[in-house]
Specification:
The protein is of the alpha/beta class and about 450 residues long. Helices cover about 35% and strands about 25% of the residues. It is built from 12 helices and 18 strands. Strands 1, 4, 5, 6, 13, 14, 15, 16, 17 and 18 form a 10-stranded mixed sheet that branches. It has a 6-stranded mixed sheet with strand order 7-8-9-10-12-11. A hairpin with a 6-residue loop joins strand 11 and strand 12. Helix 1 runs antiparallel to helix 2 and helix 8 packs parallel to helix 9.
Length: about 450
């Protein structure tokens, strides 16, 4: 297989060299023709060379043509898992003197990594219905499990952290009634955060999400396998993209949206799907079935959430390796206040970094790396730490690590890579620059 890939690369290299030689020949020929025309049209019989200014203009135009054909576009998509707000997070963020909520410290420790992204993506597993407007209001006017409703300031913290697009389709989408769906979209729009998975009306539902960045057009879609038994109003079927109980027809509709994104000009398609089994360390057969279907439909990057702990990464590819698709079966909780017996695992998440490259008519994944993360608890907030940096250089953290933090960070350091690589050859992963790097 490596020999075939090497042959393919050599062919591409020779094609590029041939194109440069052709362009060089065209440049010389064009210069010669224009020089002849200039001399022929010049008054008198004096032989004069083509003016330098004209020659420079011709060469610049031809060179720009060559550069345009050889241009390589690139961008980094960084994706995280579940963005949740539980009771403890709300209570810790509350500032009693002003009756407000401050979530600004949450992402401070990982902000440098988030800033590296050209597009930052995540799963918003809560809603913003407004104070005392959810199904419950038992936590300072807001609520968490089983019916989420969070302060708007958490959304503001997401915007400040740099999130560009969020999927709003998950099992908690209808926690605060249909009105909570709409108010959530209103807040995200006001914060300039794009969203997929929910809609205000039929026209909004049918509108495709395409984002162009660095010369690459990325298509996004979002779906959920469950609504926790809450049914969409019959007169509002557009509210949430769902395939409840892994309905085959709905999965086909999900795949059709991938094809629509392709037809609309998407160079690269990202599908964020909420499915799986909570706290299960390996993806179930339904997750794998959905991933297979989306890959065949044309998805390039499949992001899944719901298990709340990390699951493996997988690479789907054709026999000739000309097309690859990366599947992240679960990126775990990026931030949450969940309490469970397996506390370490529910506090471990990841920032998945995917380099997307576009060369000529081909767009593909050019690199993959993972920054493991850990949710730490403090008196006034629950925040996110970068595991490798906290493990190797704890003195560089701007917060004092407690003994519990150190123990859990050490576990996360060894646990994350083992889980992520799954069935992959361990030699394909290396540690570099505070992240795990996949030999793509």
């Amino acid at each position: 297989m490596k020999f075939l890939l090497l042959c393919k690369r050599n062919v591409y290299r020779r094609m590029r060299e041939s194109r440069r030689l052709v362009c060089k020949y065209v440049r010389r020929t064009l210069l010669g023709v224009l020089s002849f025309l200039f001399v022929s049209c010049h008054n008198g019989n004096e032989k004069e060379s083509i003016p330098i200014s004209i020659q420079d203009t011709i060469e610049a135009n031809v060179d720009s043509l060559v550069i345009e054909k050889d241009t390589v576009y690139s961008l980094k998509i960084s994706a995280v898992g579940d963005l949740m707000v539980h009771d403890y997070q709300i209570m810790k963020a509350r500032r009693k003197d002003t009756d407000s909520f401050d979530f600004s410290p949450v992402f401070k420790q990982v902000q440098p990594y988030l800033d590296e992204a050209d597009l930052l993506v995540g799963n918003l597993e809560t809603v913003f219905a407004g104070k005392n407007k959810g199904r419950n209001d038992n936590v300072c006017g807001y609520a968490s499990f089983p019916y989420f409703n969070s302060p708007n300031s958490f959304g503001e913290a997401l915007a400040s952290a740099g999130f560009d697009i969020l999927t709003t389709a998950n099992n908690h989408t209808l926690d605060s009634y249909p009105e909570g769906v709409i108010s959530t979209l209103d807040l995200l729009d006001s914060l300039k955060i794009k969203h997929v998975g929910t809609a205000r009306d039929s026209a909004d539902r049918n509108e495709l999400c395409l984002i162009e960045k660095n010369g690459i057009k990325i298509g996004f879609s979002g779906y959920t396998y469950s609504l926790n038994g809450i049914r969409k109003p019959k007169d509002k079927p557009y509210l949430v993209n769902e395939f409840v109980n892994y309905d085959t027809l709905k999965i086909s509709e999900m795949c059709e949206e991938v094809r629509r994104l392709r037809k609309a000009g998407a160079d690269f398609v990202v599908t964020y799907v909420h499915c799986g089994t909570e706290y299960q360390k390996r993806p179930n057969r339904y997750q794998q079935k959905v991933a297979d279907s989306l890959y065949m439909a044309g998805s390039d990057l499949i992001l899944m959430s719901h298990p709340h702990i990390l699951q493996k990464l997988d690479v789907k590819t054709t026999s000739d390796s000309l097309r690859k698709c990366l599947v992240a079966y679960s990126l775990g909780n990026f931030v949450s206040g969940q309490v469970s017996k397996e506390e370490t695992y529910k506090d471990i998440g990841a920032i998945l970094e995917v380099i997307v490259r576009k060369e000529k008519d081909s767009t593909f994944i050019g690199g993959v790396s993972v920054i493991p993360t850990y949710s730490y608890w403090r008196k006034d907030h629950i925040g996110v730490l970068p595991v490798i940096k906290a493990h190797d250089h704890p003195e560089q953290m701007s917060i004092q690590l407690r003994r519990k933090d150190t123990v859990n960070i050490n576990r996360a350091y060894h646990h994350t890579l083992e889980v992520l690589r799954g069935d992959m050859d361990s030699t394909k992963w290396q540690i570099g620059q505070e992240r795990y790097v996949l030999d793509w």
